[in-house]
Amino acid sequence: WLKETLNTPTQITLGDSCLEGTREIILPRIFTWVDDPAVTNILWLSASPGAGKTAVGSTVVRKTGASRYFFRHTDSVSQNLLWFWRTVAGSLLNQYAVLRPYLSDAVKEIHEQQQSVEDLDLLSQFKKLIKSPLEAYYRQISQFDGSKPQIILLIVDALDEADRRDTRQWNELLETLAEWSQLPGIFRLIITSRPNDDIRSHLGLKCLEETLATGSSVSEESQADIDKYLRYRFLSIRKRIQQILPSWSDKDIIPQLVNNAAGLFMWAKAALDYIEGGGDPLKRLQDTQYSTSIDHTQPLDDLYMRILQGIYRSLDKDEQDLLQKVLWTIIMAKQPMDLLSIEELINTPECSLWWVEQALRPVLAEQKNDHLLQSCHKSFTDFMLEQERSGEFAIKEALHGLYLANTCLQLMNTRLKFNILGLSRGYFNRDIVDLTELISVSIPWSLQHACKYWSEYYPASNPTAKSKNLTQNLEIFLEKHFFHWLEVLSIISAGYYATSLLKTANKWPGNLSSNMIQLLTDGTKITDLFHQAIQESCSGLYFSILTFSPQTSLLANHYRKLYNPSLQVTRGIQDWPTECQWSFKLSLEGHKDAVRSVAFSPDETKIISGSDDKTVQIWNASTGQSLKQPLEGHQSSVYSVAFSNDGTKIVSGSSDSIVRVWDAFTGQSLGSLEGHDGGVNSIAISPDGTKIASGSDDNTVIIWDISTGQNLGQPFHHRDGVTSVAFSPDGTKIVSGSYEGTVYIWEISTGQTLGDLLEGHQGWVTSAVFSPDGTKIVSTSVKGTIRVWKLTGQNIEQSLEDHQGIVDSVTVLSCTRTNSNLIYKVPITTWAWNAKSGWILDASSKAPIAWVPNNLWPGFRTPSTQFVIGAPETVLDFSNYIPWEEWRV
């Protein structure tokens, strides 16, 4: 159950290890470090692309049995930062049996707090899934004196290949990796990456750094190791050539190739793969001897160029075009595919691409048992994507992205269908027998790939890209296969892809009619509202969406005509729930990265915004126009912004730990407030404009004098990072919330808490504020709970407790709505309601029929012959009900 709860993706298998007899200096140093818990517990192995970092990492894994996470550049799932610590926890679970009880306790504790592992952010994942169970294990073994504890080793490979587009997530990942240094010494961490400055700035003095030198600074060890590698590979080459030229010798050739490699194992491997890849080995050997540059990328560029020239040289125009299409697809694929999947995706006959695979072997990674085709190395991918390096061979990203988006839609429109698994009745996905085998037969990898990535291939970087065929295929997809697509995503546990893909498609510029835009918008609302139904039942999602989508839904109405579902709403549910209805009045565009915080000026004429691009922007609230150049000064993401009550000052807090004050009219910096040791998550200005409160990841709240920038007293301390701060209306108190789910009230003059710690939230506190009259505090949490606290003198009492609407019995659910009912005209003996999940079930088979959206749960009760749900006078008629499996479509 623990592995299922973590729900982590499968990591790619180990790559090549170091050749026996090589790396005889660096490997012993690493193994010595691993066994010495007295020295720093983080080792950073940095080097240029192609230097052999991953081979060293693979060797250490094989020798020690360590856990490993690989940020593979060809696998978008492994690059997703939110999967990282969850997958690491799963890897530790597999590799170190001694940790299993502690990881199990950690997951149980998360569930007891009414949280889901999937909902945890990076910081919470590290604290709850890694730090807490590892420290618990260490406390336990520390009780046994004299025994030598087992070393726990984690290797994070190719960190620089992680998806860094979300700056805040990337910084949080680096912060958690650096926080590993606080763990006891038996927990060892090896990180391999390029020598990037942002990685170095976070790890700093907390790690031991080892380097694999290349280029002009290449070490004698690297030169000697590459010499050994080349001599090993030349055994077969020499035998092949000497069959024709018995007197041929490689005596003078190997030293020259060693010099050309300049410490890059990737160059040596690619060169030998090219020589052995077919054709005239002597001619290919000569090709590899021309490069003399020792620039970091030039040796690889020269080699890649000669390899591609050799591959293309013997092909006619049609063969070149096909090979190019396959190569570009391999490199741009969001996840690696095998040859059959590529044939299906680009619509070529089966077994027609075998010769292409053979020709491309010099630039492809060595295949494992999964037979996935992928670039030989990140350096080759970079080479192919940069026009100035690869010239005529460079990938035209916009053109090929458009092509792949179109082929994905074509494949889905051809292969998707109703009840694709051929199920005999409705099921929860978890109950489908032999599901893995059914998927392999009915949903090939190419179709899975298309369903998960179709809109992501569209060239966002080229807004002028258009395709009439693409528009036509998208229209067919939306009008004929939308539900079939959701069915497949449900089956392969990828329902969470749906909303993001639809939102991305809705941004395709210039191609979409108003009708298609409305269909995509409706589709986004559907996948948002019915995500639980989509994730849990490939059959139940049909009834759920068609029944409970409002009559205003263009997409649902279109499919109601196609399917004519037998479970029908005959009155009510005319519009989307409130959370699905918001539309925007103005779009304020100018930031270069995610916007983290916004605020209105007191007179509501201006808006300020803070962003991951490290800037603060000031906007005209009526026109949406930027009023100033971006306010620059922060060194990292801006998490919180606020106006003073008189509108003359702006205050911003950042993950760089700094609070800055700005003149709201000129945009000039009025000073920086330094004192926090962690990112500043929340800021507030006192009603009289003389003080600033800031809450930080360092677990503290600091009060500042806005005119002098000095601390007013000692910081107020929480037990975890502070997420929200606010002043009372009279400016004498501060309320603060934290990641641990608690709320404190502080007297500013004394620094003491008012009353006891306020507890009760499940999940971290997202906001805490005073009521306008100062007599109440309202706090909210990430789990959607709202709590109201009443202040009476020095006492605090909870005056309102939120209702979760979940009980074990189907006969009672806490009622928060009255006077309006949703009526099911069916005998209660036929159907059952699961009050925990929201599903209406077949009473005998327990098969899912339809999932009821959460906003309709309150007020549920079961009279003797009908189902009643609190909702705006809505009637659902079961009298003509036909099971899903009997639909004729």
UniProtKB/TrEMBL annotation:
<dbReference type="InterPro" id="IPR056884">
    <property type="entry name" value="NPHP3-like_N"/>
</dbReference>
<dbReference type="InterPro" id="IPR036322">
    <property type="entry name" value="WD40_repeat_dom_sf"/>
</dbReference>
<keyword id="KW-0853">WD repeat</keyword>
<feature type="repeat" description="WD">
    <location>
        <begin position="715"/>
        <end position="756"/>
    </location>
</feature>
<dbReference type="GO" id="GO:0005634">
    <property type="term" value="C:nucleus"/>
</dbReference>
<keyword id="KW-0677">Repeat</keyword>
<dbReference type="InterPro" id="IPR015943">
    <property type="entry name" value="WD40/YVTN_repeat-like_dom_sf"/>
</dbReference>
<dbReference type="InterPro" id="IPR020472">
    <property type="entry name" value="WD40_PAC1"/>
</dbReference>
<dbReference type="Pfam" id="PF24883">
    <property type="entry name" value="NPHP3_N"/>
</dbReference>
<feature type="repeat" description="WD">
    <location>
        <begin position="758"/>
        <end position="799"/>
    </location>
</feature>
<dbReference type="GO" id="GO:1990234">
    <property type="term" value="C:transferase complex"/>
</dbReference>
<dbReference type="Pfam" id="PF00400">
    <property type="entry name" value="WD40"/>
</dbReference>
<dbReference type="InterPro" id="IPR001680">
    <property type="entry name" value="WD40_rpt"/>
</dbReference>
<feature type="repeat" description="WD">
    <location>
        <begin position="673"/>
        <end position="714"/>
    </location>
</feature>
<feature type="repeat" description="WD">
    <location>
        <begin position="631"/>
        <end position="672"/>
    </location>
</feature>
<feature type="domain" description="Nephrocystin 3-like N-terminal">
    <location>
        <begin position="29"/>
        <end position="194"/>
    </location>
</feature>
<feature type="repeat" description="WD">
    <location>
        <begin position="588"/>
        <end position="629"/>
    </location>
</feature>
<protein>
    <recommendedName>
        <fullName>Nephrocystin 3-like N-terminal domain-containing protein</fullName>
    </recommendedName>
</protein>
<dbReference type="InterPro" id="IPR019775">
    <property type="entry name" value="WD40_repeat_CS"/>
</dbReference>
<dbReference type="InterPro" id="IPR027417">
    <property type="entry name" value="P-loop_NTPase"/>
</dbReference>
